[in-house]
What we know:
Blueprint: H1 2-21, E1 40-44, E2 50-54, E3 61-64, E4 70-73, E5 81-86, E6 93-99, E7 105-109
Parallel strand pairs: 1-7
Antiparallel strand pairs: 2-5, 3-6, 4-5, 6-7
Amino acid sequence: MRVFRRLLLLxxxxxxxxxxxxxxxxxxxxxxxxxxxxxxxxIEVAPRFVTTVRLPEAxxxxxxxxxxxxxxxxxxxxxxxxxxxxxxxxxxxSGRKPGKPKPRGFLSQV
Length: 110
């Protein structure tokens, strides 16, 4: 019984660093684009991460081109922010436009 406990403890000690070694380090990126008047901005998103877009004007509504691939939200408390999340881990592409008087476009890619 003692030998079994020691072997179990030894397997646990050897296996623990391997589990932590599989975690990848994620570096957040801050990208600033100031001259997008009338242009389409490409936003690359990754599964299990939320991308935040700050716009110069308030957003009233948001339309997602393919809701089965992407989830997009905005809050009335922060009307200049859009939150985009990829639902699928497969490569996808979707066009969406925030609802506001001046048309602007965004294109999300996984």
